[in-house]
Amino acid sequence: MKTFLVVDDSSVVRKAARRMLETWSFKVEEAENGAVALDRCRQHMPDGILLDWNMPEVTGFEFLELLRCEAGGAAPRVVFCSTHNDAAHIASALSAGADEYIMKPFDADILREKLVEVGLLEEEPL
Q1: Does the reported pTM lie above 0.90?
Q2: Helix, coil or strand: residue 30
Q3: Do the beta carbons of residue 9 and residue 30 sit within 8 Å?
């Protein structure tokens, strides 16, 4: 079973994402900020990470830079999730090592599409 870490300071976003991911048979853990997320990754590196940009203590961007320096930190597929939609934010996220970027609010179709694009889910047959 693939594992997923949902990192967001909003418990509502974490719970909604958890429900979607569990529907697709992921084992899901949650973290309320980048510091907690980094600890979780050091205990067990997940297959995928849904990562909020704006969080207290350690931001999503800072977390991503730290994650990619950790042993095994290049492996997780990271989907940044933010309300920022300008090209500079998206380019920064991708250059820091994000695999994809989605806008809040998102739904199951959007998240599923991105997970297919990064190779964590199979495309549904037509």
Answers
A1: yes
A2: strand
A3: no
Q: How far apart are CA 90 and CA 80, in angstroms?
A: 9
For each of the chain's 126 residues, which pLDDT tens digit applies?
Answer: 999 999 999 999 999 999 999 999 999 999 999 999 999 999 999 999 999 998 989 999 999 999 999 999 999 999 999 888 888 888 888 888 999 999 999 999 999 999 999 999 998 766
CB 70 within 8 A of CB 42: yes
17 vs 13: CA distance, rounded Å = 6
Query: Which two three-digit tokens encode residue 70?
Result: 């950790």
E-only strand ranges, the chain? 3-7, 27-31, 48-52, 77-82, 100-103
Q: Which residue has the tokens 């806008």?
A: 103
Q: Which of 109, 107, 102, 91 is nearest to 49 (CA)?
A: 102
CA distances to 32, 37, 117 from 29, in Å = 10, 9, 22
